Amino acid sequence: MTDNASHKRPKLSDVARAAGVSPATVSRVLNHPGIVRPDLQAKVRKAITKLGYAPDAVARALSLGRSSTIGAVIPTLGMTVFANGTAALQQRLREHGYTLLIANSEYDSDRELEEIKVLLERGVDGLVLVGDMVSSAAVSLAGQYDVPVITTYVNESQFAVPAVGIDNAEAMNRVLQMLLDLGHREFGIITDVAPHNDRQRARRQGLLTAFDIAGIALAPTRIAEVPYSVTNGRTAFRKLMTMEPEITAVICSSDAFAIGALAESRVLGLSVPRDVSVTGYDDVDMSSHTDPPLTTVNVPAAMIGRLAADHIVAALNGWVPPATTKLPTQIMLRGSSAPPRNTET
Predict the structure, then answer these.
(1) Kind of pairing, strands 187-192 and 163-165?
(2) Other CB atoms within 10 Å distance of the CB of residue 57
(3) Same structural domain for residues 179 and 274?
(4) Closest to 27 (Cα-Cα) out of 9, 48, 7
(5) Is residue 344 one of the residues assigned to a domain?
(6) Closest CA relative to residue 128, chosen from 329, 281, 317, 310
(7) Residue 332 included in any domain
(8) Cα–Cα distances in Å, from 239 out to 1, 201, 236, 242, 264?
(9) Would you list the DSSP string of 36-85?
(10) Do 86 and 235 fall within a single domain?
(11) Tens digits of per-residue pLDDT, 231-259?
(12) What tens digit of pLDDT does each residue of 272-318 get?
């Protein structure tokens, strides 16, 4: 015969009885161990282990008025940058005692708003978003729930939401300056057409502004706008180099485009960087293993994730995070960039 009692979930009072202490002492060991004598802590923890006791998270959340969960809406987890940043966010939140709930918007603003609604209805204590395309309705909704919001991968927000990220336009300006310093004057661009990706738009606009400042007129035939993929990077590179063979450097707004360009260069019989230099953006894991290794912009995803966690938890504890947290980017100089042949000595 099965003993039903043996399958009952142990309660806090059972732990107290087994340890020979009061329920209040057990509660203090679980929530404020620093104020409990070491010998009493040892008794309680031994009883917890023996009984297999697990605190009731729902009851604890009700008593504290919090769920100890943070919601994050990510455009996609199919990109290394977002995957690494989300992993760092989750790890740091765990260190703070919070659980991360993740939703995927697939770069769709309507779906992003729906996912935000679901997370808020589930009682998350805070929200971490990506970029500055989130609607004012979403920010207003979070305000109705009295939930703090942090946005990431950009360093400022039009909605006065604290932002933790990088200046995408400035980073592209630096890429162009690096290539100009190498002696390049004939350029092509491969960039994303995504209407709901403000980071890609900032990279494109930052680059075009940098060309204007440098006094370089870029013909429309030297700008390839295609959806994000390695395959589209290949197609765009072929079109650029076929229509504008004078190009000596192709600047890509993502590593996917650049990896596609490197692959297509071999099909076209072009040597990188002897015939044409190629640069990317993101510094995904594969970028250092391409042939040749890819010169690219490193996005500090892990740092963004950790700081976003720190800021959202700080906000929950009454501290106002800075409106702007601008993290440094680094150009990873590798084998895919070099001076054009006509400037080599």
Answers:
(1) unpaired
(2) 12
(3) yes
(4) 48
(5) no
(6) 310
(7) no
(8) 76, 21, 5, 5, 10
(9) S-HHHHHHHHHHHHHHT----HHHHHHHHT--SEEEEEES-SSSHHHHHH
(10) no
(11) 999 999 999 999 999 999 999 999 999 99
(12) 999 999 999 999 999 999 999 999 999 999 999 999 999 999 999 88
